[in-house]
User: What shape does this take?
Amino acid sequence: FDYFSPGHLWLSPTGILSFWFLWFTPVLLHPQCLDFKPPFRPLRELEFCVMYKEFGCCDFQKDQELMSKYYQIMDNFDYYGYANCAGFVQELLCQECSPYAAHLYDAEDPSTPIRSIPGLCPDYCAHFWKKCNSTFPFLSDDPHITKVQHDQTRLCRYLELDDTDYCYPHILSNQQLTQNLGRVQSDSDGCLQLCLEEVANGLRNPLAMVHANDGTHRFFVAEQVGLVWTYLPDRSKLERPFLNITKAVLTSSWEGDERGFLGLIFHPMYKYNGKLYVYYSVEVGFDERIRISEFRVSSNDMNMVDHSSERVILEIDEPASNHNGGQLLFGDDGYLYIFTGDGGMAGDPFGKYGNAQNKSALLGKVLRIDVDDNNRGPLYRIPSDNPFIHERGARPEVYAYGVRNMWRCSVDRGDPRTKEGKGRIFCGDVGQNKFEEIDIIEKGRNYGWRAKEGFSCYDKKLCANSSLDDVLPIYAYPHKMGKSVTGGYVYRGCEYPNLNGMYIFGDFMSGRLMSLKEDRYTGQWRYNEICMGMGLTCAFPGLINNYHQYIISFAEDEAGELYFMSTGIPSATSPSGVVYKVVDPSRRAPPRQCHYDPVPVRVKSNLIKFIPQETLIGVEPPSKTKPEVQPTDSYDWLQELIDRLGELGPDPTTAAPTTTTTRQPKNSRRKGRRRKAVRLVGDDQGRNDRGRVEIYINGEWGTVCDDLWSTNNAAVVCRQLGFRHALKAAKNSEFGEGKDLRILLDDVQCEGTESSLLDCKHAGVGVHNCAHYEDAGVICGNSDYIVEV
Assistant: This one.
């Protein structure tokens, strides 16, 4: 069974891989911060909230802000108040640093209001109330807390959580929630629980995704038919393809055709020489060949190849239509590595020992050539240290042999800190009918085919040959687990530290995701299967826990983050291919550690905005319970009607949020907690990406003054509305005056990471010393690129 093998495919009715429901029970852990992301280990040790210095949701900067807030509050108390309440106040403030902050503040979903005080267990709340009732007005500006402050029963009921497992401080002693916190979670069978983020969709057998290593952080996705598409860092796609050689590429629409556009790589010095290399199938007369060509980028458009620049570097006859190889890599030595298949059919029947063991044939090999300085003279040269350069009859291009059909190889970037492992080349070699294998490619080595398949003998006569001297794979698995390996990458990215050093790969036929981790002391590789997280494991905005079955390829972006491509229908003409980013929901890198500023991209094509299609499955929305009306409160039916109308959605002039949420907003059962919303109004042309900022607080809409108004403030508004960027912080009522509304916020100061303007510093709700001619506005956008259409 091979990559794209026909006749052996199975597909669920939805086309989505979802069989893991039968394999494990859902993991209950769901650590989440107030920015709706996983917790992290701070780079700098915390000084105030030291209980979360090892793992939590605060970096040093946030820790210092909480300390400052603590001293501001405690300045209002005498010695007695300080002695009795300082510990309580510190504990409550520091729950923003808890790994479960989103649960404690009832903010697991971006569309739900965030509490001003964490959810308290009833016994703790009663104790706190008796000793330090006077601190509540300083801890919260929630008017309902002020209203019920002197009624212990009502106050503590208001501060309860619906999910009592997460209330403070009982959460600290809940072993089910605190055990193995911060580690990659696994089920009882050891299957690692990871999540995915959809990055691109609607692709026809996407089989390569590469970057140009030029600082732009674009990524380029190749389709089997011979098209390569450009994607910008915001995941928008250029309407015009980067490369289109569909007329030259040999492939077909039938499921399982292994011919086509198979590989793409940019020259390490692409930023300076504009060169890239492609690997594809062609038909020359009645012969089928694989062709490796060099192209240059257009001098007029950095997002398009100069199609007239093609130079054929190498062509190899293919005796059959399968086992075409297809990988191109540049090693750390700067040379181009080419991975060819054994020529096809079954059992490598070509010649006495097959192509793979024949060093005079280019098929079934890893080739290494030098394509530098080839503008004049030969198109490529042979590196002087190629292993068989002096062996009679051997092709000098051969670097390693005994290869069946290596499908997807990668170069290890090395440990980000120690560089351990740097330069190793990992490959998945597709087996015949028993085993699939993972190899590390070394110079001059024999990888065994057709004598061996995995660790076992295939051709018993060749296998017994004492001169075989083959290198064994680091891992092999039987066909009961999968029948066509897809090689992956060693994770060396920044965003998910737990994954560092983990080789992640898959199987095309079974759809199984797998991982290997090297034991540094024994050199052995430990295997773990990867399952999609169920329960609340992947309940983060934008994350999903399912994928299409047929895993075609893996990829790294310029920052080293890991992706894979799969499809629901393995045909070169079926637009069911999706690119997924691999995400560890248990731990992320500290904020700002992984920040980069992409080099601006000058675009001469229309942009197609990315719209995710996949959804999280297996997470039930919370039950909708009617809010309790307290007997001591008058029933305000008009206010409830206003609130419910507000919950139907933003004003028609407001952009709909583009961020996928993990579950429906909760209906709070605590009267007085109002929905926080924002809208943009006042643009003369009715555009929904700009306007006067109006905010909804405690049952009314109002405006925001432009005193201290900044791009950070604007960024909070734009992100809340679903836009990626704030292009302008508008002042002096640029979008008109909201004279019919009250001014609700003034002197707003945001850092840019808050969930809403209410989470920023401000003078207080309804407190201002400004007029409507100072109404603030914003202009939002989803692209910060120069667009020339």
About this structure: The CA atoms of residues 75 and 458 lie 80 Å apart. The two ends are 47 Å apart (CA to CA). The chain has three domains: 50-179, 192-608, 678-781. The longest helix spans residues 60-74.
